[in-house]
From TrEMBL:
The entry's keywords: Membrane, Repeat, Transmembrane, Transmembrane helix, Ubl conjugation pathway
Residue stretches of each ARM repeat: 25-67
Gene3D superfamilies attached to this UniProt entry: Leucine-rich Repeat Variant
Species whose genome carries this gene: Coffea arabica
Gene field: LOC140014686
PROSITE patterns: ARM_REPEAT (PS50176)
Top-level taxon: Eukaryota
Membrane spanning stretches: 60-82
Protein name, as recorded: Uncharacterized protein
PANTHER family, per database record: ARM REPEAT SUPERFAMILY PROTEIN, U BOX DOMAIN-CONTAINING
Family matches, as Pfam families: Arm
Length: 175
């Protein structure tokens, strides 16, 4: 924890230090820390990335290391956007540019967040209906996103079925 605080303090008032820290290989290390399970480390690493990203010279490097999905998608999911996307798709019907963009974002969320995948699985019958409809009648891009979401959902089910606790993961009581 102390090194993260020191990096942030060192970089805070110096553009030159921000660039040096980023060039020293700190960005991928910070992104790795953000994906761990320790909340205080996640907060410190995110703060350090925020400080480094305040330097325009570091912005592209941070994005190039894949920071955007790592930082943004969990936030979007935690604000309840999965259910909002599903409701949007339900209320606005089959095809429109907005629905296509919603499916694309939902596919990104489901592909990179267990929480999003779980929320989608809770409404599986509705979601599967929308995805099959998109595959049958959608644009090529829409079909691609729908197929990708179905694939992620199927892989998740397969992984749960392979585990020894598969009855528990589907809410089935043991005999």
């Amino acid at each position: 924890m102390k090194p993260l605080k020191r990096y942030s303090a060192l970089a805070f008032h110096s553009e030159r230090n921000k660039i040096r820290i980023a060039n020293s290989g700190a960005i991928p290390v910070l992104l790795e820390i953000i994906q761990c399970q320790n909340e205080s480390l996640i907060d410190l690493a995110a703060a350090a990335l925020l400080v480094l990203s305040s330097c325009s010279a570091n912005k592209l490097a941070i994005a190039a290391f894949g920071a955007i999905p790592i930082l943004i998608i969990p936030s979007i999911v935690s604000f309840g956007m999965v259910k909002a996307m599903l409701q949007l798709m339900y209320e606005f019907g089959k095809q429109s540019e907005m629905i296509e963009k919603a499916r694309a974002l939902l596919e990104k969320m489901v592909s990179s967040s267990e929480i999003a995948l779980k929320e989608v699985a809770e409404t599986a019958s509705l979601v599967i209906h929308f995805l099959v409809e998109a595959i049958e009648e959608g644009t090529p891009l829409c079909k691609e996103h729908a197929a990708a979401m179905l694939l992620v959902m199927c892989q998740s089910c397969r992984d749960r079925c392979k585990s020894r606790d598969w009855p528990k993961s589907f809410g089935v009581a043991e005999r």
